[in-house]
Design a protein that fits this description.
Blueprint (H helix, E strand, L loop, with lengths): L2 H26 L3 H5 L2 E8 L4 E2 L1 H13 L3 E14 L4 E14 L9 E16 L2 E18 L4 H4 L27
Parallel strand pairs: 1-6
Antiparallel strand pairs: 1-2, 3-4, 4-5, 5-6
């Protein structure tokens, strides 16, 4: 076993996973700068509704998600193939996404849009950075249901999440145990 090669492979996989997580977290936090860190500047992204570069895609995704009350994207299994010598990798990333829609006024009923699918990705290492070079999004299934989480709004001791740092998760002094609210 070539220990140095194994370590380089593990580092590549860790850095690719960091890019995958930055993409998801950037979407949920409505943080375009974070989402953009997951891509190389010349990447190609195709979600079906739009195909373009990272900036065009991120602007599109942030605009779409910004119109929703909330969202959460969860990474499932990830299958990566890494070619250390070439500085390239490919992968299939399963995801689950929840989106709160409607309820902007008294006439709209809150609903949940649930989607699951896969990202078919190519990654590259350029200037010492592993990032997404090509992404194709495939939706395997979707459904829309009425919201059923009224208890979250009725029970004041439950911490509801916020976007763009609106909840305490980004400002809490975790060491002191103070929740920030």
């Amino acid at each position: 076993m070539d220990l140095e090669r194994e370590v380089r492979d593990l580092v590549a996989r860790r850095e690719i996973m960091k890019a995958i997580h930055a993409y998801m977290r950037g979407q949920d936090r409505l943080d375009p700068a974070l989402q953009l860190t997951s891509f190389h500047a010349d990447a190609d992204v195709d979600c079906g509704l739009l195909r373009g570069g990272p900036q065009a895609y991120t602007d599109f995704a942030q605009g779409l998600l910004g119109e929703m009350k909330a969202s959460q994207h969860i990474v499932g299994q990830v299958d990566l193939s890494v070619d250390i010598d070439a500085g390239t990798a490919s992968g299939e990333v399963y995801f689950f996404a929840w989106h709160r829609i409607g309820a902007d006024n008294d006439t709209d009923a809150a609903g949940d849009l649930l989607m699951a699918g896969r990202y078919i990705d190519d990654y590259a290492r350029k200037d010492g950075k592993w990032a997404i070079q090509r992404r194709r999004e495939l939706i395997d299934w979707a459904r829309q249901d009425a919201a059923t989480d009224g208890i979250l709004h009725e029970e004041v001791t439950i911490h509801l999440a916020g976007r763009k740092g609106e909840d305490f998760s980004q400002t809490r002094d975790w060491a002191s145990g103070i929740s920030g609210r």
